[in-house]
Specification:
Distance between the termini: 35 Å
CATH superfamily: Vaccinia Virus protein VP39
Largest sheet: 8 strands, mixed
CATH class: Alpha Beta
Strand order of the largest sheet: 1-10-9-2-3-7-6-8
Helix content: 25-40%
CATH architecture: 3-Layer(aba) Sandwich
Structural class: alpha/beta
Radius of gyration: 17 Å
Shape: globular
CATH topology: Rossmann fold
Number of helices: 6
């Protein structure tokens, strides 16, 4: 029997480029790297990379599957960069339609934040699927939940994604490029869902293999090393 969770240490772009277009039985979840992680690129160069990578991910999802993006906007040199806009540009090129756009609060309403906004986006797209009114869930969620690391999705955001996909595509494998420390994959495993994570950092890939999720407590932890407690 194939393992529920497979972590591949490698470049997510190269892995995606080798995958078939519109592969059956696959839905994708991604949080694309931020501009700060590309010191060699200009802002315009990173925006081009970001949109092209989103388009690559969208092209690999099954026609009846979903591509879900978790992103937090940035400010650079006094300019607000709306990542949801960049992703929707990519989705239009791939003939995908936006099915929901949720906001997860990173800070309480009314609190001023600097550098990044007080919220993160969660956007779901599909080529063929459409959602019924009965499929509606909350659009504004008050907290991301506990995270495995500062750039992680958070437990509540991860659970929203997993619950959605296991309801809408119960037979699909979840593919998570740029999986980081693997909280989403650990949670999918708890629900018996097959998943594939791709992570270039050897350290993060190894940690993602040891990350565990507790549905009852709503927390992640790292197996085998008590000193590596997940961050709040």
């Amino acid at each position: 029997m194939n393992p529920l969770r497979t972590i591949i240490t490698g470049d997510a772009i190269e892995w995606l480029q080798k995958e078939p277009v519109q592969a059956p039985g696959r839905s994708f979840v991604a949080s694309l790297p931020d501009f700060s992680e590309f010191p060699a690129l200009s802002l315009e160069g990173w925006q081009t990379w970001f949109t092209q990578t989103a388009e690559l991910i969208l092209s690999r999802a099954a026609p009846d599957g979903f591509s879900i993006f978790f992103q937090t906007d940035i400010k650079h040199d006094g300019i607000w960069i709306d990542k949801a806009y960049l992703i929707q540009k990519a989705a239009e090129k791939q003939n995908n339609r936006l099915l929901f756009h949720k906001v997860f609060c990173r800070a309480p309403a009314g609190q001023t934040t600097f550098g990044k906004p007080a919220y993160s986006h969660l956007l779901a797209f599909s080529r063929d699927r459409r959602l019924e009114m009965d499929d509606s869930t909350a659009d504004v969620i008050p907290s991301l939940g506990q995270k495995t690391w500062p750039r992680g999705m958070g437990f509540q955001a991860s659970q929203a994604v997993v619950n959605f996909l296991r309801t809408q595509t119960p037979d699909h494998t979840i593919v998570n490029p740029f999986c980081g420390e693997g909280g989403l994959l650990a949670l999918a495993e708890q629900y018996g869902i097959h998943s594939i994570g791709i992570e270039k950092s050897v350290k993060r890939a190894e940690k993602s293999r040891r990350t565990r999720a507790n549905i009852e407590t709503g927390r992640f932890w790292v197996d085998g090393d008590p000193s590596e407690n997940a961050d709040d």
